[in-house]
Amino acid sequence: MDPLWIVLVGVVIVIGGVLIFRLHAFLALILAAMVVAGLTPQAAVERFHAERDSVPWVAPEDASSREPSSWVLDLSKQKNLREVSEFLVLRRDSGGELSQVTRLEVSEDATSEELPEGQRLLISADAIEPQAGDLVIHPLDWSRAQGKAKGTLGERVAAAFGGTCTQIAILIAMASIIGKCLLDSGAADRIVRAALSIVGEGMASVAFITSGFVLSIPVFFDTVFYLMIPLAKALRLRTGKNYLLYVLSVIVGGTMAHSLVPPTPGPLIVIEQFNVDIGLMILAGCCVGFFTSVAGYFYAVTLNRYWDLPLRETPDMTLEDIQKIVERKTEDLPPLWLSLLPILLPVFLISGYTILKVLPFDPATPWMQAAEVLGNKNIALTIAAAIGLAMVAWQLKGDTKKLATAVAAALASGGIVILITAAGGAFGSMLRETGIAEYLSQVDTSSPITLLAIAYFLTMAIRTAQGSATVAMITAAGILSGVASPDVLGFHPVYLALAVGCGSKPIAWMNDSGFWVMCKMSGMTDIEGLKAITPMSIFISLVGLAVTMLGAIVLPLV
User: How far, in Å, CA of 203 to CA of 254, rounded?
Assistant: First the structure.
């Protein structure tokens, strides 16, 4: 079966399962992964793993001075294979199946020849000359690829599911604990109030954007909106105006961080699929998020000039409830430095080590080794979670029973997210095994604009169809992961991850649960939401795409 049709079947199962049959995202993704795995021929699976584990070979600069059957292998990135003296050469037949055509062995004459560092010259045992498309692979890697291709459908999906859990489970669990601690301790409320006190009521929208962006790094957007909308309503009561500006400001800040900055699950699975460093994604996501936030702010200010959204009572909160929030004493909340610590510390540790790695420091020094340990994403998030738990314990005055209840609630919520994200990772792995990368590799990548636009509009189409930004990012990442390398793209894959993140924003409308949360909590009607929120989601995402494209052109990072 053609890989493109297999991928389309998988995407239809995800979209149809969520949108039509109302399946839980976990069930829809696992079902799609199993169907795709079942439809993918064994030869395609074998070829995928062989290509992934193969060793690059290069044409000799002076072929006339060498034997026609000589092969120059580029082992610059495979230090563990530099002393290996034997490799296999695989070649595809007309049916697409791989078979061994010769062995490569180091000869005495070849070892004395000078080559660039990391390259080795080997001779074909059967005097076979190199051909375009040949794969050079270590015998053990070829055996491993054959074994994976012969695995059952359930084994392949389960292995991919477990592999994704290895990458993201601890991160999501700790992020869930951090988010719960920020809410229960009042730290999140303290951050928003501090931002408002710095900029003043006249610039409250800037405070909402900043607070929403910062809080949405460890906390899911829906939760951030629940937290901040009462404060927006309270300001509307106090000032008597600008309610639409406040609502849109909360959305602008929170919604882009949710898709651009890990450890929220969407960006987390994308960087895992694209093999992007989490620290680099945090830095790049914050940079793009700055520009989208500025654009969203001006959009909100402009719309607010022509439209006065009235403040209405909502089923979840009366105006009396809002007044109680206003009257809550700041002295009863944690200090600002402690409130910010669980958010900023992991960002500092992870991003800091990412920066140190590219600077000319000796990695063997004790302080660099300490930075490597503390900059590990799992360690950094665990430290932040411990600080958050200590903050809640202090607020609860040592009530361990309430603390345990809060942690259990956070882990229960995080467990669902882990299941969805790992299922998405399994689905993405099965998509890659179909060979879809061959189709995408035929796209003209001479300009970064082409592939980034494809990534954006692919993600946007999936998001618009089924409503979930996270599911859209997971699905698009699985399709695009086969081309997510600097050699193919011509720029760093972090830009591809950013394009996917931006593409997950439009189009916010009726099939999106977040759209209803924003409308019902703010008191907007569905028509008002379509007039205000939907165009803004398109506008800020396009700004993010433009910034991403500009970055890939001006600073490709390769």
Answer: 17
Distance of CA 25 to the CA centre of its chain: 17
- Do 131 and 69 touch, CB atoms closer than 8 A? no
Q: Which residue has the tokens 């928003």?
A: 192
Give the 3-state secondary structure of 183-234: HHCCHHHHHHHHHHHHHCHHHHHHHHHHHHHHHCCCCCHHHHHHHHHHHHHH
Question: Any idea which residue has 């563990």 for tokens?
Answer: 80
Q: Is the peptide bond before 507 cis (omega within 30 degrees of 0)?
A: yes
Query: What are all long-range contacts of 310-313, with beta carbons under 8 Å and residues at least 24 apart?
Result: 310/243, 310/523, 311/233, 311/236, 311/237, 311/243, 311/523, 312/523, 313/523
Residue located via tokens 């950094």: 380
Rounded to the nearest 10 degrees, the angle between the axes of helix 221-239 and helix 319-327 is: 90
Model confidence pLDDT, tens digit, residues 471-516: 889 888 888 887 888 888 889 999 999 999 999 998 888 767 678 7
Average pLDDT over residues 255-270: 88
pLDDT, residue 499, reads: 96
Sign, CA dihedral 230-235-240-242, equals: negative
The 10s digit of each residue's pLDDT in 513-541 is: 678 778 877 888 888 888 999 999 999 99
Name, in order, each residue with C-beta under 8 angstroms of 277's C-beta and a sequence gap of 6 or more.
Answer: 271, 354, 494
pTM of structure: 0.79
DSSP state, 397? T
- Name which residue leads in pLDDT, 348 or 112: 348
Kindly state the helix (H) or strand (E) to which residue 70 belongs, with its residue range.
Answer: strand 70-74
> Looking at residues 300-314, what average pLDDT do you find?
87
- Where does residue 87 rank: exposed (0-12), middle (13-18), buried (19+ CB within 10 A)? buried
Predicted pLDDT of residue 37: 93
